[in-house]
Every structure is written in structure tokens, then in C-alpha cells.
Fold each of these.
Amino acid sequence: MRIVRISSLLTMLCAASLMASTIAQVSAQDEREGGGRPRGGQRGFGGPGGGRGGFGGPGFGGPGGGFSIDRAMLLGSERVKEELEISDAQSVTLNAALEAYRQERQDSRPDRSEFENKSEEERQALFEKMQKDREALSRKTDEVLNAMLEPEQAKRLDEIHLQVQLRSGLLAALKGDDLKSKLKISEDQIAKLTAVEEEVRAAQEKQREEMRANFQRGGGGDGQRPDFEQIRERMEAARKETETKVMAVLSTEQKASLESLKGKEFEVDMREMFGGRGGFGGRGGDRGGDGGGGGDRGDRNRGDGGRRRPQSESDAI
């Protein structure tokens, strides 16, 4: 079975979000200039204003945050359960806890209508509340899961979770309280990481401006839309460059400690994380997954089961 690498999938998701953000911003500008009806898709739950983030940098879905996959989501993967050697008896109680987690997580997601007719500041506040609620739920669920797992199982789950965090948001992970404490990252190093973060944001904003200009000229300058694969490749190259700059800030001892905390490399099957069997992708794509690009695509029916979205103001994913 082919495993979808997390870094590859997250890069593709980021490229899709970047393109959608650009299309939405161009549509909004056209609407303001032409006085026409709103066009384009609705906001998904990826982050306000499209999120100023990247991979290995500020994070996909918002400034400073990595892609949100917590321990409970990882335990929804059969491969992770096999890696942890979860027994049949444990599976019964774990599955019950995970189902309760899924339900509470889904119930906490606001309806799309809650984002309509709100200012950017109100949307930002709503996203921040969602983030805090999700973090509180994750902490509560972690306590339950730790009580069900053997110490070695919990340790291995922590290692896999850290690997996912580092792949989806290296800067955010290193600046977070947990790794900052464990690696003894100094304030001087934090300042250097912040400088890298600002470089990433500036580069991404420049790329968005270039894409916006291309769309306004009628696509990629020759009447065609920009090449999605080319955008993905640029995002992947930027991710690797950012990773190199970030790791250069750490000392040799800190890098060794980080490798120890990560444990043996484990490749997560991302299909199980995003709507695959046993995953947390939501119901039929009617809502965006947390941190991912959801929302309808626009007035034209494109892979949305024939649904037409309600008219609303254009916005970024």
C-alpha cells in the first residue's frame, strides 16, 4: 500500500490554499471595482485570510501555528495502533474514547453561516476561540488516552506526534513551550527563529502578490491559470530552505536531543488523517477539516456532489 507522505500532502494542501486565497482576493477586488455579485468559494476552516503560514515555518492555517494533528487523531490510524502494539482489550476502550473525541470535535465546529457577514476582526476572534477550544479538548483527551496506554506506548505516541509537528510546522514546534523547555532554547535563539519566520512570511506574501497579478492578467500571463504543480514545487523548495535555516539556529547538542525525542522515524498514512477510513476528515467534505481547505468551490459544480453554495462574500481559504 502506498503511503502518502505527510510533508508531500501538506505541501500540496498549502499550495491549494495559496491558490484559493489568491483567486478569492482577486474576486473580491473585482467585486469592489465592478460592483458585481460576490464570486468564488466560501472560507474553509484553514485560517483567517488564508493564513500567513507555510511548512517548516509559520505553519499552514495561521501565523505561528503548525498543521493541527493531535494524538487522538493519530490513534485513528490503524498503522499507528500497530506501531504501538495496541491490544484487543485496549482497542475497545480506546475506540470508545476516540468516538467521543470525534463527536465533541465535530460538535465544536461552527456552521459556515457563522462566518458570513462578519468583519475580518470578528472572524479572527472566532478562529482564536476555535483554536483554544480545540487545544482544551486535546489536553483533556490526552489525559484519558495516557491512562489507557502503557508507558512505552504513550512514549512512542509522543515520538510520532512530535515527528508530525515538526513536519507540519517546524518553527511553531520549536517556539512552543514544550520543545523550548526540553531543548533549552535561549531567547537569543527564539529571536533568530522569529527572524526566519518573518522572512518566510515576506516571501509568501510576495508569492501571493505575483499570483494575484497573474490572475488579473488572465491567468499565468498567457490566458492560462498558473501551473499548480509548479506552485507545489516552489512551496516544497521553500519548505526545505526554511528547514535548513531553522536547524542552523540549533546547537549540535540540541539537534541530538531533538532526534532522541523523535525516536525511530515513522511515516504516517495521511489518508487516514484526512477523511480516509477511520480518519477525522469530517462528513463528506461539507465542512473544512481543521487547518485544511474546506468550503465550497464556487457557483460551478466541481466535485462537490452537485451542491451549489449559497451566495456569500468571497474570502480566502
Amino acid sequence: MPEQLSLTLTLIFLGFVALYLLIRRQLQQIFQSRDDDTLIEWLKTTQGDLNQLQQSLTQTLNTSNQNVTNTLQQSYQQLHQRLDNAAKVISELKNETGKFSEIGRSMQDLQDFLNSPKLRGNLGETVLNDLLSQILPKQAFSLQHRFQSGDIVDAAIKTQSGIIPIDSKFPMENFTKMNQSDSSKERDQYHRQFINDVKKHIRAISTKYIRTEEGTLDFALMYIPSETIYYDIAATSPEIQDYSQAKRVLPVSPSTFYAFLRTILVSFEGQRIAQEAQLILKSLRDIQKTSHEFADKLSILQKHITNANSNMTAISSDFHKLQTKIDSTSSLPAPEEKLLSD
């Protein structure tokens, strides 16, 4: 719209300039000739040209004004529509912003709620229980394992070599404060406090849960519920790694703990296969023993059958001889009746 208006004004200005130059040139020619008739004729012609030019300019201006008016109306309508759309979008954004603010407050409330060490410990135990239940058979682990001292570890894996204690109450308050702080000095301070907290926790795990006299192995697991914290310790806190090795406490994250459990499961499968192999071998030995006994009895039975067959043959032969003798008596003469009467 501004470009069209500027073009129209430029054309009008150029028209006036051209008309001015034309009139000036013709006036100079008339004054030089000093012919009154020519001057009068020129004035009449000029008057007619001016009238035509005025009409043309008026028509051009009217057309330009109409175009400008139409353009302004269209632009106004488009602008009005865009403003309405913008108002709707802004209204929707306000509503969404309100929802996000509400979600933000809810998340903050949830975060404050989860900052409770006891609650976070319970959540850690729940996650730990889920991991153990998904991978290991139920008889291979226990929760809230109690020692003779009265100390209770969150979980314990039962292996053929011994019990593996697992603690899930990891101290992460100062780590959270370190990430939320904007001051490098405060971050360094919270980081030192975090290292001290972790060392203290490692020492407590080693003291309370590694009890070989009660059937545990000579190490324990410290479950860290966050991959970020686990890798931050591995990257920036080598003293924690050295201290945990000295205290025989192995830090594990969710992913490394999963791999550890898979390894334990493989060992359980190996034990199960070995036990089943022993049972199969025992069954084969029992079958072998039974087969030998059956062979002995079969041999004895065969001897008895052989003896019985021999006896049967002898008896049959004797019976045949006896029958022959009995049959031979039928050829003897019958005694006389007299002799019988005497």
C-alpha cells in the first residue's frame, strides 16, 4: 500500500513538471515571435490541454484514491483479523502459562516433598526391590535383612558363597544444593560437604553391614539412585573411589547394578545347572546299580530256569519209562478163574 501511494504521487509530480516545461517552452517561442493571433490560439489550445490534463489528473487521483481506500480497507481487515488471532493466541498462551505455572508449583512441591531423606530412602528401597524382583528369583534375596547387632540393611543377595549387603540410603542433599547454587564459591563448598557425606556413608556401610562372621561376603554395595551423581563421582571425585575401595564398598548406579544382577543371575543359573547335573548323575548311578541288581537276579532266575528245565527233562524221561513199563503189563496172560476161586 505505501509503495502504490508513493508511485501515484510521483507520477502526478512528473506530470506537473512536464506540463510546466512544455508551457515554458511554448511561451518563449510566442514571446520571440510576438504574434498576438498565435498567442491567442496557443492560449486556447493550452486551456483545452489543461482541461484535459485536469480531467486526466482528477480521474487518476480518483482511481488512486479508490485503490488506496480499497487497499487500506483490505489491510485494515487483515490487520484486524490478525489482531483478533493474536488476541486469541495470547489468551491461549496466558491459559497455558497459567497451567505451566501450576505444574511448576506442583513440581516444586513434589521436589520439596521428596527432599525428605526418609521418604527418598523409602523410594530408593522401592526401586531397589523392583530391580531385584525383575531379575533374581525370590529365594535369592531378602529385604530389610537384620544382623545380630540390630542393624538392618535395605537388601541382601543370597549367594552360595555368602550374603551381599545392599544399602540404598544415599546422601544427596548437598549435591542438589550444589547444582542449584549460582555461586562458584557455594558450589565448591557444597561439593566438599557432599564428598564428606559420601565418605561418612561409606564408612557406616562398611562398619555395620560387612559381617563375615554372620555369613556376609567381604564387601557391600552402595546403591546410587542417579546416573548423573554416579558419573559425577567417577569423573570429579577420585578420592571417593579410593576410599570406597579401601572400605570394600562398591558404588553402583541403576545401570551398573542391573549388570551386576545379571552377572549374579548367570552364576545362579550355573549353580542350578551344576545341581541338576549332580541329580542327573546320581540318577544314572542309581539306574546303573539297579541294572546290575536286575542282571544278577536275571542270572539267578536263568539258572533256576535251566535247572528246572533239566529236572523237567529228567522227570519227563522217567515218566516215559514208567509209562512204558505200565503199558508192557497189558501183554501178560490173564489168570484162570479157578485159580482165582482158590
Amino acid sequence: MLDDRVVLNKKWAYGGSIFSEKIYRDLAVSSMVSGHKNFLKLLGCCLEFSYPVLVCEYAEVITRSLRGARCPIDPSLTWSMRIIIAKEIANALSYLHTAFSRTLIHKDIQPCQIFLNENGTAKLGEFCNCVFIPEGETYVQEDVLEGTYGFLEPNYASKGLVTEKTDVYSFGAFMFVLLTGRIPQPMFWKREDHLVEDPECLSRLVKDRRFDKVVDKNMLVVEGRDIEQERLQIKAFLELSLRCIGRQGDVPNMTDVAKELKRIERLKSVPCLVKETV
């Protein structure tokens, strides 16, 4: 509690010089971006422990523990909520990439780094793996990989090259989690007993209206929803995800991704005589 309000404390369980550097990096970047509504707001820092404890506004992480296991995403999140989350986190990443004299790369976009406050605003947190790209350069090279399996951009995973596309790829993989409720796997994408060896197969399934093979069914249980509008949005959402991971057309930058998600959110269905069911 801080001044009679609930807060979120970020306390590291590990120590050492490497972790110390990460903690101070998290603190530094958090202070730089706290003014933006789509970042976890830093309220202060407690120095009474071995390492600083960051005190942030309270928000709930979008993952959830069910039956002792950690779900990649809270199944109660509706489709419309997931679009908003994607749009707002894209805005946050676009800000990191463009707001400073040097491009700032997050490097670890994944569900457990993303929070929702009580008003449903999406917040990006955890900046311990962030890295600046020097002015006049388009990449930095690292010897030690940092990030999460399933969200690592191939060029970074194989060569250690950190670019804007490092975040774009991770964000595309995160979009896949929002859509399917499952963690993406390198080289193949699995949905229960249905193995999709190529992500483009997912796009064809959406085009053929085979939603049962693609989407997280939990998000579609909403009374009075517009099924045709959802189909249009899901198709566009998946195609954008495939672009982000380099499997369909040119890889966009995060500013363009944010603009496209805003367009997808506004997509409206065309009235028709026959109503479909998913």
C-alpha cells in the first residue's frame, strides 16, 4: 500500500552483477516512459533491500494460473479486449522505437510482460532486457541471447542482431497468442491435435471460416456479438501477425502496425441476409 492505494512491487529474486545491471536498466527505462499511458507507471523506488524494489501503479498481468498451470493469456479476455490490448501495446512499442534520439528495443515482448489496469488500459512493463541502438546505426550485435522461446526473431536467435524487427517479430508472436490462446512454437504451430506446419495455413483456415481450428474459443462466448465483423477482424489480425513474423509480405515497422490495428478495430461487417455461426 502507498498512501492508502494498492501498488505493484517489482522485487528481483536473484542478485549478482548481471542482475544488478538489469535492475538499474529496468529502473532507468521505467522512469523514461512513465508519462505514456501504455507503460506501467513508476511511482518510486525502495532502497531498503539488497537491490532496488520498483514501486509501480497496480495492474494485473494478462496471464492467469489455472489448475496450477500458467495460461499464456487470461481466457476471460474477449476478442474486442484483445484487439485493444494489441493496439495499445503496439503504440507503446512504436513510442520506444521513435520517441528518443536512439531507438530503444524492448527485446522481450510476451504475455507476462503485459498488464491491464482497472480501466482496461494495456500496460507494457519489465524493461530489464532493453537495449539502445546507437545513433546512425540500424542494429547492435549481442553475444548472449535474451528473450523468451517462441518469441525470438530468427535473425536475433541465430546471429545476435538486435533491430527494430526484433520487437516486430516478438509482437507478431504475441498477436498469435492473443488470437489462439497458445504460445507459438518455432518451425511449427500446433493447435491441440491439429498440426499446422506452415503459418499461412492458419490464414486459409480463417478464409474458409474454420474458426474452430484457429481461435481461442473462450474469447467468442459473448452474447449479441457480430460474427461477420469478428471474421473480418480475425482475418486481418492474423494476416498482420504473419507480416510481423516475416511470413507474408514485407515486415512493417511498429508505427505501421499500430495504425493497422487501429484500422482493424474499426472494421465493420457488411449487412447480409444469412447469419453465420462459429
